[in-house]
Structure formats: C-alpha cells, structure tokens
Amino acid sequence: MAKAATSFPPNAHPHIYPHWIRQQYPELPPVFVIDVWPVAAPMLVVLDPIAAAQVTIKNSLPKHRNTQDYVYPLLGNKNMVTLEGKEWKMWRGIFNPGFSSGHLMSLVAGMVSDTVLFTEILEDYAVKGAIFQLEEAATRLTVDIIGNVVLDVPLRAQTTENELVKAFRDQLKWMLLPNDINLFRKYNPLKFIMHRINARTMNVYLDKLLEERFTTRQQNDRTKSTKRAKPIIDLALDTYLSETQRSETGTLPDVFKRSAIDQFKTFLFAGHDTTSSAACYIVHLLNQHPKALERVRQEYDEVFGLDTAKTAQIITDGPHLLNRLPYSMAVIKEVLRLRPPASSVREGERGVIIDYEGKQYPTEGFMVWPVSFAMHRRPELWPKAEEFNPERFLVKEGDPLFPIKGAWRPFEYGPRSCIGQELAYIELKIFMVLTLRDYDIRAAYKELDKLNGKDTSAFTVDGDRAYQILIATAKPVDGFPAKVTKRVKLR
Questions:
Q1: How far is residue 449's CA from residue 464's CA, in Å, rounded to a whole number?
Q2: pTM of structure
C-alpha cells in the first residue's frame, strides 16, 4: 500500500489503489486482503460481481461501522444509507413511490426551470471569460432540483447563500475521513462543536420547511386548488399514513418528520455524490472524445429540433422525450463506469463466507469492500476496459461488449442500490440537453495554475489532471476548474 500511495497524488481517491495493486500483481484473484493495521481494519477487497453478490444480495451485510460514524454528523442516525433491517426496509418502501421513474417524469418541469437558470449562469461566465468551479455550480443546481422535487420548495442555492446549504457544506468540511489517524483532527473540540451547530441549523431549517409543506398540502387538499404534481415528500407521507394505518390529522407525525429530515439530508448528500461530479466528467470525457460529443449533439437535433431556444419548453411539454436519448444514456453509464462516485463498504459477519472459484473467504473481522472503480476496469469483465466507449451500453446481449450482470455498479447493485438513480439519470439528461449544444465547457487546470503561480501538471492519475479525490464521495480535484464559451452554430 505504501508503494501504491507514492504512485499517485497524495489526495487521490483511495479507490484507485485496489485497481493499481491488481495491475502490479496480476496473479492476485479478484478477491484479496489488504491489511493496513493499525491505520484501518483489514479489508477484504471484492472485484468480481459473483463474489460481490454474496455480500450485497445473498447475504446483505450491514454497512460498516466506519460508514455510520462518518455520516451520522452529516445525515443523522435515521438516514437511509446506514439504516438496517426492518427499519431500512420500511423507510425505503415509504420513499420508493416518489422516486419511481413515472412520478419523477411529472416533476421534470421544475428540473428544467432550475437547469435553465444554470445555463444563464454559464452564459455569464462565458461573457466574462472567467474560470469557475463546474463542480460547485453543478452542486448548487442539484440542490435546487432536490429542493423542488422533494419538498416543492425553492432553495435558490444557485443565486443566494442558502442557510441550509451553507451549514451542510460546512459540515462536510468538518467531517474526517474514516481512517484519519491525525489525533488533533480526530479529537479537535471545535470539530464536535461545529458538528452540533451545523446539525442543529440543518434540522431546524428542515423542520420549518416540512411544517410549511404540510400546511400547504392540507390547504391544497381542502381547496383542490392545485393540479401540480406532488413532491416526493407528499407521496412518502401518503405511503407512511397508509402503511401505519393512520389518518391524517392537523399535525405532521413526529416519527415521520424526524425521518424525513434525515432523508432529505441524505438526498442532498447523494446529489453531491453522483449528479454534480458526473456532470463534470460527462463534459470532460466528451471533450476528450469529440466524435462522441458530436453524436450526442446530433441526437438532440433529431429529437428536439435545431432551435435550441425552444428546447426547454419542448422538454417541459413532453418529458417523455427524455426517454428517446439512448446514446446520451449510454454516455452517462460509461462515464459512471470510468468515474464511479462511491462504493459500498460492508461489515463482515461470522458465518458469512465468500465462496469464489473453489476458495472460501471468511468475512468476519473484515471491512468488506466491493470496489466499483476497480471492478469497472477489469479487462476480464470489460473488453478494452480503460477506453471510453458508450457502445457497451447499446449492444445487445451476446455481443462481446455487452455488460456482465452485476459488473456495473456505480449505484451499488441489489436491494441496497441507490434510491435516487432514476432522478440522477433525468437530471443528467436535462443538463446535457440544455448545455452541450449551446456551450463548449472545458477543463481549465492550466489556466488555474497560471493564476495561482504554480505548476500542478505532474499531479495526474493515468495522465488525467481531473482525477478523483475523496471529499465525502469521489469528486474531481480542485472542483473541476472550467472555462465556457458560447458556441457559434453554423446551420
């Protein structure tokens, strides 16, 4: 591990290490142990979908205690990431209806409106010729979308310093990596104070929003004054009342409210997790593959017409058109294959044994880590695994490129897969459709270096300056500094 750590930039995401280790030691099976005691618990690394299924589906091991300790200050102890057993199953079932593809399509108009505002911000950067952090801008877009689709509340994160967003992002800064051994950072009393302050700020803010939404919901039910689609929280409350056989009273049930607060923070976390980072890497990888970018733009011309000024309204009037973008969907999946946002880390248990190719691997005492980054790059699973090729997700079963079941897992795979993956797909498609034909967005690491008077060109992973780092989840280093120019369309 020491050799691996010195082969990459010091802040590179650790999920690159298992992949590097197998490259250096190709005789290693796709299930192996990394023992870094006393820095961290020994890890049982799993890089095969058949083996992974034994700890995520057949025996759904609980999330590792490090994960719980890490996310509790940010998400609370009722968050869906770390809940287990019957409690997780109940709350997952309560929120599932709101995250169904069919219901999310009824909320597309709000997503489009938020993304149009994002394009106006891009326009301003294009006029100024300024360098900006695309990951930051995309995160603020995601926060606005989540506020609208979950609570039907405009958070205005793209244009103002929202109190909730400020506390949430500050909390992220105070979160330690699970294996941080720096004792000052670990036991800094200010950290615990800030955890409490930020948690209280977020909880009070969300409590108020939920109460306001509940009042609005009741008014709408009495007057039948709105035909707008229900936000996710309304469907969740409907399901909760139905499953607990309760009738709606004049107050929001405390049990539901406490869970809803933690789930909303979880959805915000997931927005940082997937959508904002994926948006950066979609732009980045398409710029590196201009033929794929041209094919994406051609797909939009065919589905939405040549007049990009009308596209937002066309999507609003016909959200189903987003389902007619197979190549864009393939691009999204290929980007998530090469730049997955996270992996699931499980707690090994007595009696749970991975049986793989005649060998048995006990999980007890291990941090069991199905590493999506490394699994996505195994040549035995993915022909020409290091190449960007969206065609993998367009070919039919039987083709050598066709993905092996369970080998693609940026949202995990099985019953604990991410509840928000359909929302992420829709958000990313809207982002692509409304930006890629009107703007050229490119990485600006060299320009940032020039402004800062330093040279960071040597800091790369596989030759790429926009490598992933760990800030709660996998994000592009330095927030993906970018420059944007308005495209001149010759038609």
A1: 15
A2: 0.94
